[in-house]
From TrEMBL:
<keyword id="KW-0472">Membrane</keyword>
<feature type="transmembrane region" description="Helical">
    <location>
        <begin position="382"/>
        <end position="406"/>
    </location>
</feature>
<dbReference type="GO" id="GO:0022857">
    <property type="term" value="F:transmembrane transporter activity"/>
</dbReference>
<dbReference type="InterPro" id="IPR007603">
    <property type="entry name" value="Choline_transptr-like"/>
</dbReference>
<comment type="similarity">
    <text>Belongs to the CTL (choline transporter-like) family.</text>
</comment>
<feature type="transmembrane region" description="Helical">
    <location>
        <begin position="331"/>
        <end position="351"/>
    </location>
</feature>
<feature type="transmembrane region" description="Helical">
    <location>
        <begin position="683"/>
        <end position="705"/>
    </location>
</feature>
<comment type="function">
    <text>Choline transporter.</text>
</comment>
<keyword id="KW-0325">Glycoprotein</keyword>
<feature type="transmembrane region" description="Helical">
    <location>
        <begin position="441"/>
        <end position="462"/>
    </location>
</feature>
<keyword id="KW-1133">Transmembrane helix</keyword>
<protein>
    <recommendedName>
        <fullName>Choline transporter-like protein</fullName>
    </recommendedName>
</protein>
<feature type="transmembrane region" description="Helical">
    <location>
        <begin position="581"/>
        <end position="598"/>
    </location>
</feature>
<dbReference type="GO" id="GO:0005886">
    <property type="term" value="C:plasma membrane"/>
</dbReference>
<feature type="transmembrane region" description="Helical">
    <location>
        <begin position="303"/>
        <end position="324"/>
    </location>
</feature>
<feature type="transmembrane region" description="Helical">
    <location>
        <begin position="35"/>
        <end position="56"/>
    </location>
</feature>
<feature type="transmembrane region" description="Helical">
    <location>
        <begin position="717"/>
        <end position="741"/>
    </location>
</feature>
């Protein structure tokens, strides 16, 4: 008998010989699982690396970065803009918006030969006595035709007001062939040629400019002269000579002020971006730029408060997980009772609204905007009747489930407490997801870079097209092609250089007819390589997630199957990491391959659905909708099955198919427990995240509101919002690990119930509370009983 009770290994604290079919989550006596799949995965990664190297050596990202102007012309590629490879924005500030990739930049954009090398402002130049030629020279207009049609100041002013010519611009530099602001620390205080300096070198430069003022002067020299006249309030004939050093200094100082006013937006790019984003929800008021600057200022000033609040949130999450071993039961039952009371309140309110609107006839709002339609819905008695019926059904369903599953809810509460003990014991598991996040970011970056380089391999195809004068109205330009281009016709392929050289109108080059870029033709093998890259990303990302899940599962399984919890090894997470990396990468590759195939099928179905939309066939759309729904459900089920298969593999060390079969069979034999545990724990974790996130937000706002002497802010909601978002992410990481712990302990608990009977040969490894709920107990001698 003495030999029978000596069942705990002194090193690992695990059962050894009480069951020959169960070896426990031990690193020893394991073998590599699903090796063929691991080899396949390694070969696949090797092929992916080969494709990446080929793509980088043969791809050209410049093909993808070619800018497109307002007239849908590729700068430097299309026939009409062969010598204009830079894109100029009439008002670049409108493009500093996070939503530009979705909504597009509304300002006119045209192709130019070179980016502006000086600052220009029409209002300033219009005040000076310049000739029409001098005024037209620095103008940048949409087309050469627009610029050629300007014959007077009134014509220029009208073109500027109509948006056919740029009102103002500043010196810029090409970035990815786009004329961008020349950003520097001194930009607001210095102009490229006329800086606010008092040294002799700058004075000499200004003197040289004044001597050549009869020529076409840069806009800043004109600004300098005009503003100086305004300040002394005299007639032009009374103005002091420009070569007077005192007037030069005055003019330069005021020129710097004008530059600073014009360039203020350039040095507040972050504020402008925030302002443009706020515009989407702020109705585009005139104060939106000021609001953006205030938001950015609040973010910078409150950085310390935000960091402290997030550190406190992190500590609070750890404390909360620790306290859950004592507070899980009251929180769960309080949450369930709160939901039932909330449903009763909703039923009462809905029925009250139904009675009111049923006895109060109203005329519906006929406006089509969203708010009016919502108002109509809230005044519809049928809506409130249906809502009250739905709430009654939900209330009865939840109430009956609580009555039927009350004992299983108690089991779920005990497992939540056990999960809290496990996470608190192996606290390093809370930070382990950071490792998988880093790997996922690297995988995303690799896949995107390879995809871009692959997409740039191929030849450019062009088509001869006519520009629309008005919507659905083609121009009547008579563009005649001769020589090598004699066969060029509208809608057919062409070469932009040949078109430019041999296609003419009676007045010169074709303007409204062009040889325009159509698409980048990728060879067939490149398209297959792109599909390979997409599938590789799916497989690798699912593999990384699976690796994290199995490491955590092995850690918590080792904690559960250790007979005396104080004997859990100190480096349990490290042991689990090594065990997974050495023995079960093939299993992870197998499971992630299945998910990747399912995800790829879903992607193909989405592609087919997009292609078939133009045929508007009800039958095909119904079939595709059913298939998309089926594969979405299949992927969700496979995710659930894979997660439990990884847990079983971490416990028993078997291959993927065996582990999946054992996990599925075990869960199906305890389906009611599974439902109760899954829903109860998910709801509890959601409430916990909500509690911690809301607490962090309220505490931050309260501190800022009651301590104005510590920090001065324009809007207290700005740092509060940042804290709420970041706190929710932090709590999601914590409770993601917590959820994995509960899932693992649940499977271990089911295994424990089926394999053991509480005898000295087969003792239970569950907690005393779980044994009490199930009416079980261990029959061990006093000296062998565990300390809980």
């Amino acid at each position: 008998m003495a030999e029978n009770v000596e069942m705990v290994d002194s090193k690992y604290g695990e059962p050894l010989r009480y069951d020959r079919n169960f070896q426990g989550p031990r690193q020893r006596n394991r073998s590599c699982t699903d090796v063929p799949c691991l080899i396949l995965f390694a070969l696949f990664l090797g092929g992916w690396v080969f494709i990446a190297r080929y793509a980088i050596n043969n791809g050209d990202l410049d093909k993808l970065m070619v800018p497109t102007d307002t007239f849908n012309q590729k700068c430097g590629i299309d026939s009409n803009v062969l010598n204009k490879k830079y894109l100029f924005f009439f008002n670049l500030e409108e493009c500093i918006d996070p939503l530009v990739p979705i909504t597009g930049c509304k300002t006119p954009q045209i192709c130019v030969e070179s980016c502006p090398t000086q600052t220009f402002d029409w209002e300033t130049m219009n005040k000076n006595g310049l000739t029409i030629a001098q005024l037209k020279s620095p103008l940048i207009c949409k087309t050469e035709k627009d610029k050629a049609a300007l014959h007077s100041r009134a014509d220029i002013d009208k073109a500027v007001r109509d948006g056919r010519c740029a009102r103002h611009y500043i010196k810029s530099q090409p970035i990815f062939n786009r004329c961008m602001f020349e950003i520097s620390d001194q930009l607001c205080r210095r102009s490229p040629s006329y800086r606010t300096r008092r040294d002799s070198e700058q004075l000499q430069l200004t003197h040289n400019v004044s001597q050549s003022k009869k020529l076409v002067m840069p806009a800043m020299a004109l600004t300098l002269q005009s503003e100086a006249q305004a300040r002394v309030a005299v007639s032009p004939s009374q103005v002091a000579p420009v070569n007077d050093k005192g007037d030069q200094c005055l003019q330069q100082q005021h020129d710097g002020e004008v530059i600073q006013k014009k360039m203020m937006q350039t040095n507040t790019q972050l504020a402008k971006m925030v302002g443009n984003l706020v515009t989407r929800f702020y109705n585009g008021t005139a104060d939106v730029q000021r609001l953006g600057e205030e938001i950015v200022d609040d973010l910078v000033n409150s950085l310390t408060v935000v960091i402290v609040a997030l550190c406190i949130t992190l500590i609070a999450s750890l404390v909360f997980i620790t306290l859950m071993r004592w507070l899980a039961a009251p929180i769960v039952w309080f949450s369930i009772i709160g939901v039932l009371i909330g449903l009763l309140v909703g039923i009462y309110y809905s029925f009250k609204q139904y009675t009111y609107w049923n006895n109060t006839p109203t005329v519906p709002q006929h406006d089509l905007n969203l708010f009016k339609q919502i108002e109509n819905l809230l005044q519809n008695p049928t809506f409130w009747l249906c809502l009250s019926i739905a709430l009654c059904i939900f209330f009865l369903t939840i109430f009956l489930l609580v009555i039927v599953l009350r004992k299983r809810i108690q089991i779920a509460i005990s497992l939540i407490k056990e999960g809290s003990k496990a996470v608190s014991t192996v606290i390093s598991t809370v930070f382990f997801p950071i490792f998988s996040w880093v790997l996922l970011i690297a995988a995303i970056g690799f896949a995107v870079v390879v995809g871009l380089y692959l997409g740039s391999i191929g030849s450019l195809s062009f088509r001869m097209v006519r520009r629309l004068d008005k919507p659905f109205e083609l121009n009547n330009e008579n563009c005649i092609c001769q020589g090598p281009a004699i066969n060029y016709t509208i809608g057919n392929a062409c070469d932009p250089q040949i078109f430019h050289d041999y296609c003419r109108t009676s007045n010169g080059h074709c303007v409204d007819t062009s040889c325009s870029f159509l698409k980048l033709d990728n060879p067939t093998y490149i398209r297959w390589a792109i599909a390979y890259d997409i599938f590789g990303f799916f497989w690798l990302s699912f593999f990384i997630t699976a690796f994290s899940d199995m490491v955590l599962a092995a850690t918590f399984a080792r904690w559960y199957w250790t007979f005396k919890k104080r004997d859990v090894p100190y480096f349990t997470l490290s042991h689990a990491f090594v065990q997974t990396a050495f023995y079960h990468l093939g299993t992870l590759a197998f499971g992630s391959l299945i998910l990747a195939i399912c995800r790829m099928i879903r992607l193909v179905l989405e592609y087919i659905d997009r292609k078939l939309k133009k045929y508007d066939n009800v039958v095909t759309r119904a079939i595709l909708c059913c298939m998309r729904c089926f594969f979405w459900l299949l992927e969700s089920f496979l995710r659930f099955l894979n997660k439990n298969a990884y847990i079983m593999c971490a416990i028993h060390g078997k291959n993927f198919c065996t582990s999946a079969k054992d996990a599925f069979s075990l869960l199906m034999r305890n389906c009611l427990r599974v439902v109760a545990l899954d829903k109860v724990t998910d709801f509890l974790f959601f409430l916990s995240k909500l509690l911690l996130t809301g607490g962090a937000g309220v505490a931050t706002y309260y501190f800022l509101a009651n301590n104005p002497h510590v920090i001065q802010l324009n809007h207290k909601a700005v740092p509060t919002t940042v804290v709420v978002i970041a706190a929710f992410l932090i709590t999601s990481v914590f409770f993601g690990v917590y959820s994995m712990a509960v899932d693992t302990l649940f499977l271990c608990f089911l295994e424990d119930c089926e394999r053991n009977d509480g005898t000295p040969e087969k003792p239970y490894f569950m907690s005393k509370q779980l044994m009490k709920i199930l009416g079980k107990k261990n029959k061990l001698p006093p000296r062998q009983r565990r300390s809980k």
